[in-house]
Amino acid sequence: MTRLPLMGHTRPDQIVAWHKGQAITVARFLADVNALADQLPPRHYILNMCGDRYRFTVGLAAALVKGKVSLLPSAHTPEMIRQMRAFAPDVFCLHDTLNCSIALPQFRYPEVTEVADVDPVIPLIDSEQLVAVVFTSGSTGTPVPHQKYWGPLVRSVLAQAERIGLSATAPAHAIVGTVPPQHMYGFESTVLIALLSGHALCSAQPFYPADIVATLAEMPAPRVLVSTPVHLRMLLDAELKLPEVAQILSATAPLSLTLAHEVEARFDAPLQEIYGCTETGTLATRRPTQTNEWRLFAGIKLSQQGEGVTASGGHVIQPIVLNDVIEPTHDDFFLLHGRTAEMINIAGKRSSLSSLNHVLNAIAGVVDGAFYMPDGLSDDHVMRLAACVVAPTLTAPQILTALRAHIDPVFLPRPLLFVAALPRNSTGKLPREALKNLIQAQLGEHP
Question: Which of 126, 125, 120, 124 is CA-nearest to residue 29?
Answer without folding.
Answer: 120
